[in-house]
Every structure is written in C-alpha cells, then in structure tokens.
Amino acid sequence: MSTTITPAGQLVRGLTLVAAAAVIISNVIGTGVFLKARVMTCNVGTPGMVTTVWIVAGLLSLAGALTYAELGAMMPRAGGEVNYLGAAYGERWGFLYGWMQLLVGKTGSQAAVAVAFASALAGALGAEFGRPLLTIGAFELTPLQLIAVVLIAAVTLINLASVATSGRIATVLTGVKIALVVGVAVAAFTYIDGSWGNFGTTGAGGVCEGVSDGARLGIGGFAAAMLAALWGYDGWNNMALVAGEVKDPGRNIPRGLILGVGGVMLLYVFVNVAYFFAMSPAEIASVPKDGVVAIEVMRRVVGPLGVSVMAGGLMASSFGTLHSSMLSGARIPYRLAEDGLLPRRLALLTPTTRVPLWSVVAQGAWASVLALSGSFDALTDYVIFGSWIFYGLTISAVFVLRRTMPDAERPYRAWGYPVVPALFLLVTAFLLINTLITSPTQSFIGLGLIALGLPVYAVFDRRRRAVA
User: Fold this and answer.
1) Residue 418, preceding bond cis, omega within 30 degrees?
2) pTM of the predicted structure, to 2 decimals
3) CA atoms within 13 Å, Cβ hemisphere of 312
4) What interhelical angle do 249-278 and 163-191 show, nearest 10?
5) Is residue 29 within 8 Å of 181, Cβ to Cβ?
6) What is the 3-state secondary structure (H, E, C) of the chain?
7) Which H, E and C letters describe 439-459, residue by residue?
8) Neighbour-count burial of 260, counting CB atoms closer than 10 A to its CB (0-12 exposed, 13-18 middle, 19+ buried)
9) Do residues 72 and 329 lie in contact, with contact meaning Cβ atoms separated by under 8 Å?
10) How many Cβ atoms are within 10 Å of 193's Cβ, its own excluded?
11) Average pLDDT value for the chain
12) Angstrom distance (rounded) from CA 385 to CA 274
C-alpha cells in the first residue's frame, strides 16, 4: 500500500451524524453495563440508589459532552483534547494527554477489551484458554492472549479502510450492542417471574465477594459506585478524537455527543431496572466476583443456553468497542506527529482511503504488546487518576478559551455555561480527592507514568526547533 504525507485538512470528512454518534455508543457500551450491577449493589445497597448513581454518572458525562461539544465544534481537528489543552494551557499539556493515552489509556483498554472477547469466546465454547502454552521466567503465553492479539490485528486491518467504511461498521456494531442491552432487559421483564417488590429490599444479605468494607454504603460506597458507573460511561469523549473526519462538524459534533451520551444513559437505566426486577438485590450482590449479572438473568430465561447467548453477545459488544476505540485512538499519534511531536511517519495518510496508516498500525502493535504482557489491568488502574485530571483540565479549557479567544468562531456554545461545566469540575475535584485518599499508590504511579512524557516532549520539541 503506497502512502504519502498530506496535511491534516485532507482527512476525509466521511462520518455522518449517525456514524459519529455510533462511535460514542459503540465505544461506551462495552462490558461495564453487564458487570457492574453486582459491585454497585454492594456499594450503595438498594436498587433505587444504584439507579440514581447511573443517572448521576450519566448526567455528569452529559455535562462533559455538552462542554466538549463547544470545543469540538470550535476546533474540529483530529486529536480532540490534544488541541483543546494545547490552545488553553500550552502544547506540552496536549502532548502529555496524548502520551498518557498512547502509553496506557487507549492501548491498555484495547488490550483489556480484546482479552474480554477471548474470555467470552472461551465461555461460549466451554473451553479453557487460560492454561499456559509457553512459560519463560515470569512470562506466560496463553491461548487467551494469542486470541486477543489476533483480534487486535484483525481490527487494525479493518481500520485501514476509509473512515466512511469504518463509520458504517461502527453503526452496524452499535445496532448489535443496543439490541443486546434491550434484549436482556425485555427478556427479564417478559420471561422471568420477577417482582417490583425487589425495589423495596436491600442487598444487606449479599455475599459481596471482593468488595471492601470501606466501599460499602456511606460516602465511600457512593464514591466507589460512581467510579464504577463512570467506568461504564467511559469513552463518551471519543468523537472529539475523530472531529477532523465528521461531516458538518459545527452541527454534527454537538448533536452526536448529546445523542450518543443521552442514548447510553437511557439504555443503562433501562437494563439495570430490569436486573432488579428479575433478581433481588441480595441475589445480585451474591453473584460471584467473576460472574456477570446479565448472564445470570439470561440463565433464568433460557437455562444453560443463556450462558452461550450472553457469551456471544459479550463477544459482539467487545468487538464493537475495540473497533471504535482503535478508530478514534489512532488519531492521537496522528495529530502529535502532524505537530512534529512524534515521528513524522505517524502522520502519513494513505492516498486512497486517507487514514493514518502508521498510527493505526503502531497503536495495534503496542496494544498487542500489552495484551501479551498481561499487565494492562494494573496499568489502566494507574491512569484512572490521570485521566480525570485531563477531563477536568479539558472542561476548564472552555473558561480559559472564552477569555483568551473571545472572537473565535463557536458554532455551538456549551449549554448551561458557566453552571454546567462548573458542576462537572466540582464533581471531578471530589473524585480526584477521594481517589488520592483511598488509592494514593495508584494515583502517584499514574502521575509518574504521565510525567515520563516530559523528557519525550523535550526531545521532539528540540528536534522540531532544530529543523525549523
């Protein structure tokens, strides 16, 4: 495949409103909505509180999306936060955000999703994929890891197609995800002899395997449940990364963000209400640590076949999440390379499909390394703290840019400004302080991983200045 270096402006705006919203929905709906009901029930105790947490987390994500919409419509370029942070606080901050996403944030989550796909495949086949095929010192190679790497390679190839084609694929996969979530909920309401009386009970008698006492009830429990729900919503900002390829960005970026996040919130609340109709809070809290509440619901609908049905659904959901994540994530190294802050080769666009060839390939290669290493879970835990720092900085960029760039064209202005973004910042501050108190080691390691980007930035900045 021949390549050529072309300016950022020659990325093809091939994503329609529906495709742009699909990038968000497909990326957000992964496994969280199927997994988190158990631990959240242990955290806050009652169906009403679990539902409330999902709504609050959804509104917080929507508040972020409403503010991101102004920035995305104002600067409709690939790379999202790299542009917004750079404009508001200086290029170094944009680079550090991109560095975090490349090192662990995006690629680590892609490795995790690929392994989740392999685990679901093992469940569907009734196979054991965790036994080592090869052991070298502390390193173990398992069939689970090999399947994950093959999947990453396949999705990497798919993302070398035109962005319009990738958008259509994302739309189809999003339809599958929505059908899965709605299907589980409808099955619970229709085929299980459930009870609305479950909403008047608590999870007090539940086993709550692996949930610490400090994360049960009270402020600590609510904060833990919020983090779980926000993980379930994570990815709502992904359309900003592909803003340079959205048709009519001044209209479709705001609409896509609002449609995507709002649609996900409605789906999440619907399916969680269905869980508690089908099972009591104590039953949900007693699901094993490695179990899946949605699978238990489907087991009650169709017996053992429900396990295979949900395993297939989780595979489809994981595939869709991986595809959308790799589609949007590859635009980060592309943007940094365009700005001279990564090797110029990463800015190469193919002449026919106009996609960043080497950025897509490099992202897939590093995600594969993380999948083989088996360390992605620990790494992604480390960057949660850093991720929310950058979310907060990005939202605060609206205040900064309103002051420093008052005459810039803004096709959309953040709804509820300044109250809505200010509320987002207050909640973000609460979550950061709580994480720093409850998980200081993870927080400081995450900050250390981000700080590793400073010497990298210095090297590329020096090289760029030398040739300027």
Assistant:
1) yes
2) 0.83
3) 9
4) 20
5) yes
6) CCCEECCHHHCCCCECHHHHHHHHHHHHCCCHHHHHHHHHHHHHCCHHHHHHHHHHHHHHHHHHHHHHHHHHHHCCCCCCHHHHHHHHHCHHHHHHHHHHHHHHHHHHHHHHHHHHHHHHHHHHHCCCCCCCCEEECCEEECHHHHHHHHHHHHHHHHCCCCHHHHHHHHHHHHHHHHHHHHHHHHHHHHHCCCCHHHHHCCCCCCCCCCCCHHHCCHHHHHHHHHHHHHHHHCCCCHHHHHHHHECCHHHHHHHHHHHHHHHHHHHHHHHHHHHHHHCCHHHHHCCCCCCCHHHHHHHHHHCCHHHHHHHHHHHHHHHHHHHHHHHHHCHHHHHHHHCCCCCHHHHEECCCCCCEHHHHHHHHHHHHHHHHHCCHHHHHHHHHHHHHHHHHHHHHHHHHHHHHCCCCCCCCCCCCCCHHHHHHHHHHHHHHHHHHHHCHHHHHHHHHHHHCHHHHHHHHHHHHHHHC
7) CHHHHHHHHHHHHCHHHHHHH
8) buried
9) no
10) 6
11) 84
12) 32
Joined tokens for residue 63: 């508040």
For 267-318, the pLDDT digits (tens) are 999 999 999 999 898 998 888 876 778 888 888 887 777 777 777 888 888 8
| Most confidently modeled range among 36-45, 151-160, 302-311, 423-432 | 151-160
The encoded tokens of residue 384 equal 């949660």
d(CA 182, CA 191) in angstroms, rounded, equals 14
Residue 397 backbone dihedrals phi, psi, to 5 degrees: -60, -25
C-alpha dihedral over 436, 439, 445, 450, to 10 degrees?
-50
The length of the chain is 468
CA 270 to chain centre: 20
| Single-letter code of the amino acid located at 316 | A
Residue with tokens 């960029």: 397
